[in-house]
Amino acid sequence: RSANVRQTLDWPDDRDTPAAIAALVNDAQARQNTEREARLGVDWMFYPVARYYADRAGVPISVHVVDQDAWTGSDYLFVRGGSAAAAGATPVARFPATRSVLVRTTDR
After folding, report:
1. Of 2, 9, 25, 56, which sees the most CB atoms within 10 A?
2. In what order do the strands lie in the sheet with 100-104?
3. DSSP states of 31-43
4. Cα separations (Å) of 16 from 24, 70, 75, 82?
5. pLDDT tens for residues 66-87?
C-alpha cells in the first residue's frame, strides 16, 4: 500500500553519475581539452544515466560500456571502485556513497 518514490526516481547506483560527468568536464577543461570528444567507459549499470548527462554536458562526450577488466578506447572510466579496469589509471574523483570512481586513462 505504499511506494518508495524517492528511490524509484533516483536509483541508488545513479546518484553520483551527474557529479561524475561534471568532474569529467572540469578535468577536461582544466587540461584545456574540451574540443575533442571525450570517450567515457562505464559499467553497464551506469550507462543510461551517464548517457543522459553526457548528452547535456556542453562538451562532446561519448559513452560506452566497458568490460570489467578492459578499458581500451576510453579516455575516462566511471566504474565501481574495485574494478580492475581502473587499476593504474589517474583518479579524477571518488564517490563513496556509490563506491564508484572516475579515472583518466589517457593524457588526452
Report:
1. 25
2. 61-65, 38-42, 76-80, 100-104, 90-95
3. TT--SSPEEEEE-
4. 12, 22, 19, 16
5. 876 666 788 999 988 777 777 8
